[in-house]
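Study both lines:
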Amino acid sequence: MKKILVLTILLFSIQSFSQEKNDCDDRIVPYWWNGTNSRIDGESPTLRKAFKEIQLSETEIEPKSGFITLRLNISKTGNLCKIETFQIDENYKSTEFNNGQLVKELEQIAIGLTNWKRDKYYNTYNLIRLKIKDGQIEEIF
């Protein structure tokens, strides 16, 4: 009985030490919360420049109108943890632009964004919104 108890305690101890925690596991707060102010260096011009090529090349997006939101979860050290995407058509119904291919391309661009700055040491999220109108990306904000 003692051997089983010792073995059980040993296994639990090993398991608790083997669970590594990284920056992305911490609580996430919005970029605007309590002066957190997480932003990419250069703000809007940097974002517009990063997405400019796809904005010019994608001219036949289906459905023709709606919005795409990329939610970038950024660690307290300024690294990208995860991207969540939301796509809605002009009637605010869930959709997939270009059968989901457009979001895949946008996510690849977002992964390349670096130089996230912060005023406080928190995990945050930032939103990038794209307005689709007449089959084109009309606005990035």
